[in-house]
Amino acid sequence: MQNVINTVKEKLNGVMLQELTDKQKIQFKNNYNCKLYNFEYGLNTDGDLVIYTNKNNYTNMVYFMGFDHAKNDYIKLKIEMEDVVTAVYDIDNERVANLAQKLGLKPKGDRR
Length: 112
Description:
By secondary structure, this protein is an alpha+beta fold. Helices cover 36% and strands 23% of the residues. It is built from 4 helices and 5 strands; from the N terminus they run H-E-H-E-E-H-E-E-H. It has helices at 2-11, 22-32, 55-64, 94-102, and strands spanning 18-19, 39-43, 49-54, 75-81, 84-89. A 5-stranded antiparallel beta sheet has the order 1-2-3-5-4, sandwiched between helices. It is globular, with a radius of gyration of 14 Å. The relative contact order is 0.18.
């Protein structure tokens, strides 16, 4: 159990979540034709993308961003509690990096 707690602490360390700007909301709505703008995001100290949202929006986001349900090695940590999902995505994954770029995020020492 302590290993789980330590992993969660490590992966969420230093995360400062932010919300989409109005301009970003319009961009996401127009580009993906869905309500992808109902999430908060940030980078952890490792430079990985952290997403915080509800379960329905998480499912939509995974689908519309083209993330693979079966091959999900891009997920470093995923926590589901009631209707909330927090996920840490590997920034070295091309689709994750593209999403981070669309959000205006740039990891320290950009590994791509």
